[in-house]
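The passage that follows is intended for readers who have already worked through the single-chain material. We present the inputs for a multi-component assembly, then the predicted structure in tokenized form, and finally a short commentary. You are encouraged to pause after the input and sketch how you expect the pieces to fit together before reading on.
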Amino acid sequence: MRAFAALFQRDLLVALRRPTDAANPLVFFVLAVLLLGVGAASAEKGLGGSAAGAVWVLALFANLLAVEGVFRRDVEDGTLEQLLIHARPRFAAVLGKLAANWSCAGLPVLVLSPLAVYVLGHSTAGAGMVMLTLLLGTPTLTLLGAIGAALTAGTGRGGLLLAVLVMPFYLPVLIFGAGASTAAGAGGDAAFELLVLGALLTGSITAAPFAVGKALAISQEY
Amino acid sequence: MSRPLLNARGLTCVVAGQRLFATLDLAVHPGDLVEVRGPNGCGKSTLLRCLAGLYHPEAGRVERGAPFTYLGHRAGLSADMTPLENLRWFAGIDAARVEPATLDEAMDRVGLGAARFDRCGMLSAGQQRRAALARLLAGHASVWILDEPLTALDDAGCALTRGFIDEHRARGGAAVCATHRSLALPRSAHASGRDARLPQTRVVALGS
Amino acid sequence: MGLVDWAKGAFHKTGSPRWFFLGSRRWMVGLYAAGIALIVVGSTIGLGFVPPERFQGDSFRILFVHVPAVHLAQAIYVAVAVAGLVYLVWRMKMADMVIEAAAPVGMAVTAAGLATGVVWGMPTWGTGWVWDARIISTLVLLLLFFGLLALRQAIPRPDRAAMAVSLLAVVGVVNLPIIKYSVEWFTTLHQPASLTLGERPTIAPVFLVPLALNALGYYCLAAGIVIAALRMKIIERESGTSWVADWLAGHEDRVGG
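Having made your guess, compare it with the prediction:
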């Protein structure tokens, strides 16, 4: 697993060298919470029981924003060619990159999410479950989003195209993540949703890196 | 006769409906230098990418019997890291072939000793090429696949590159290069190849 | 052994654009004719001869369009994904052309299914839109089709675009049941019961006849349209080859007429 460690360290180092770039998804998350609070929440009750679901949607968009650029600089500077040729096993290198990407975007959002639930819902009900479901769910989003990012790598068109490509795949994660959070906020049981989220994560860790590797190889065929 | 380090058989490439080359055979033995030449757009880069496994040819196959490395138009260096850091993480994925201890020495040999702690984004194009050359030197790949290795280099850099290729061949390595200028040194000293077959400098002309 | 050889031969022949183009005209015409005939007969029975439904009156008749459209949309996506797999494994150009020909048809059919669903829902449910499992699934399917078209357009090199689109189609079909399952779970557990559609009531045989005729007709017509689109793609992509020149020479008298 040297390839995993090498890529994980490398991408974290690059993120540290460009701290504002790395912080963009988190800042977007905070900004979106602010806008939602101003635009949709009532002064007394906030968003009420919908707060947890809303936080989940915002976390999903922040994740999409982060994963969009995960391969862009590697394509531009030729690092990707070298990775495709030399990194063995390829899926470990892909996982290393995605783990670093998630650590810079998914993790800080996860840490801030209880605060977001509180300011939007005026209650911490379900905040713990939001954290837990984000912990299980956002890595899946990163893995699935990376397939889209790899497919669009080198086209110079990320952004909206990526959103269109991966949103259908994000839907199940959102349904179970937000569903569990809302259920827990209302005092219900969410064990089943957590199991499904765990299953989705396991499935995507197993399969997504191969699809990403294949898509990256396609992107370099010219 | 020994097994070739790199053996391409029957390569056929069609890009955007245009046939670049067809049923091309290329066997690369220790000590060989293969210069791929031809006008712009004739498929030099595509041939090298086929050899490196980045491009799937429409027909034919490439047998890679020895470790190889590829240097394309883009140096493969992250602008946010220093040359040394770039080489170091690369050594991490390529442990069998790159020794971390040789990285400093390689930096000195390509003339980047002083710049090794500057971020690559601040280096000139020529300096970036030199940093990429350092990766070749530090690695233990037998076959170098180089796409226009002299691009952006000054006269001293070109001389260095030719010297490195010469040295690499003397050690039993081989190079396949797309180039417009000859990469062989005037008096090549490879007549004493280890095989009965003499190492040679060959030109593959495309687009004729 | 004879069967294996026959299958191999059929595989290679179908993979040859020339063979397909020269042999498919009959199929195209036949499927068009069968499709139109079936739809005309089915719709005539459905609109003119079937009695009004007990609760929905005449508005249910749009189901003779809606139900076949939604089923056809899913079938087309699966077909596209199978073609994608064939392209990824064998790099068969015909498979890519099938995707390119079928994806817009699939998208149009999905949109038609969605639109007729909304029209039907307004009098039946009192609202055109509820977050029902089938509606969400169909909307997602529309997005999946759109993604295939958008991705192809975003990648300038045709062969690279073909690979990427094939990969997306295959990944999409793996996810289709997961999406369907999760959406169904979502609507059964988290929606007020009054808004869910629930199980469709059992269909009386008198309604089944026009429905079946229309469904079959839609499948035939869609297959005919896809084959027609495929033939145009073949001519476009193979325009430099000698057989196309030969074929055009033989049909000059018929061009434009």
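Commentary: The helical segments of chain C are 2-14, 17-49, 63-90, 93-125, 133-154, 158-190, 205-237, 242-250. Residues 191-199 of chain C have pLDDT under 50 and may be disordered. How closely did your sketch match?
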